Structures are given as structure tokens and as C-alpha cells.
Automatic annotation (TrEMBL):
Mediates the mercuric-dependent induction of mercury resistance operon. In the absence of mercury MerR represses transcription by binding tightly to the mer operator region; when mercury is present the dimeric complex binds a single ion and becomes a potent transcriptional activator, while remaining bound to the mer site. It comes from Piscinibacter koreensis. This is Mercuric resistance operon regulatory protein. GO terms for biological process: response to mercury ion. CDD domains: HTH_MerR1. One of its GO terms (molecular function) is DNA-binding transcription factor activity. Residues 52-121 form the HTH merR-type domain. Keywords: Activator, DNA-binding, Mercuric resistance, Mercury, Metal-binding, Repressor, Transcription, Transcription regulation. Pfam families: MerR_1 (PF13411). The gene is merR.
Length: 180
């Protein structure tokens, strides 16, 4: 097998294209030599990669920062595509959907570890397990709401006491917090 070397067009040669990303030069268009050594096989996937999204495009489509995408990759929530030699990584629509899934789960209060668990259940056969995780999260949210209502009630009482104690030297809110 001979090594690849660039061929400069000579008089009498015409360019023809066998594959969309390849240019062959040869006498009357036959027996050509590729000017693109690695992208001329049907199995190279070059066209698919050229049509993929950059990390910036994925971030923009998902409504996040590029660093967020990289962080998700470090946390194994999103796969990092291979980087072609001399090229840039390309992502697909599935990657955008996955980033959106992670953000939606975060908005529901799931931690990144919990989201990783949900992603492992994403084959459609683990609905019961996913429901159990959601039930645990729902119980946690309800407990937090109960705590927030208690805090709201305490703060409302302290604000009310502050309003009623005009002219006193000491503020009831600050007094209460100092005693705690």
C-alpha cells in the first residue's frame, strides 16, 4: 500500500467527485488519487460528523453555558464524543435532549447523583424504579415545604413584633435571634 501524497492538477486533468467529500484527479476522470486521504470511505462517517453540532451549539440549543456541558461530561451525565484528528468534537440531537433532561430534573429538585440514577433507568423498563425515586423526592419536597411554612410563620411573628414595638430601645427580631 502506497502512502498518500498530495497531487497538484496538471494540464489535461479534470476533477471529478466519487464521494461528496472527495475529489479525484486522473486522466479522463479515471484512476484518481484522493486529495483527502481520510474522508473518502463510506464508513468514515465524515458527512455525519460535519453535520453534527459543536459544543457551543449544543449549549445554546439546550439553554445552558458551554461550561455546563463540560461539567456534565466530567460527571458522566453526558458522553464526550471522540475528537477526530485535527478536528472538533461533534454532538447530536440526542446530546441536546440529554442536557435538557438534566436541567429539567434539576428544576424538579433532583441532585446530579439522583439524575445519574434516573438516566440509568432510561430504557423504558424501569418505570417502577423511576416512580420510587420520584416518590422519595416528593416526600423530601413536602418535608422542606413544612419547614418553610414553620420558618414563614416564625418570621411573620417577628416582623409583626417589630412593627408593634416602636420607640423601644431593643428590636424584638434581633433580640430573638441573639437568644437562639
Amino acid at each position: 500500500m502506497r502512502g498518500w501524497r498530495p497531487v497538484l492538477p496538471r494540464r489535461g486533468l479534470r476533477a471529478r467527485s466519487v464521494f461528496p467529500s472527495c475529489v479525484f484527479l486522473g486522466e479522463s476522470g479515471r484512476d484518481g488519487v484522493s486529495l483527502f486521504p481520510y474522508s473518502c470511505t463510506e464508513s468514515s462517517g465524515m458527512e455525519r460528523e460535519q453535520n453534527g453540532l459543536t459544543i457551543g451549539a449544543v449549549a445554546k440549543a439546550a439553554g445552558v453555558n458551554v461550561e455546563t456541558v463540560r461539567f456534565y461530561q466530567r460527571r458522566a451525565l453526558l458522553a464526550e464524543p471522540d475528537k477526530p484528528y485535527g478536528g472538533i468534537r461533534r454532538y447530536g440531537a440526542d446530546d441536546v435532549a440529554r442536557v435538557r433532561f438534566v436541567k429539567a430534573a434539576q428544576r424538579l429538585g433532583f441532585s446530579l447523583d439522583e439524575i445519574a440514577g434516573l438516566l440509568q433507568l432510561d430504557d423504558g423498563t424501569h418505570c417502577d424504579e423511576a416512580r420510587e425515586l420520584a416518590e422519595v423526592k416528593l416526600a423530601d419536597v413536602r418535608r422542606k415545604l413544612k419547614d418553610l411554612r414553620r420558618i414563614e410563620s416564625a418570621l411573620a411573628g417577628l416582623v409583626r413584633d417589630c412593627c408593634m414595638s416602636r420607640g423601644k430601645v431593643s428590636c424584638p427580631l434581633i433580640d430573638t435571634l441573639q437568644k437562639q
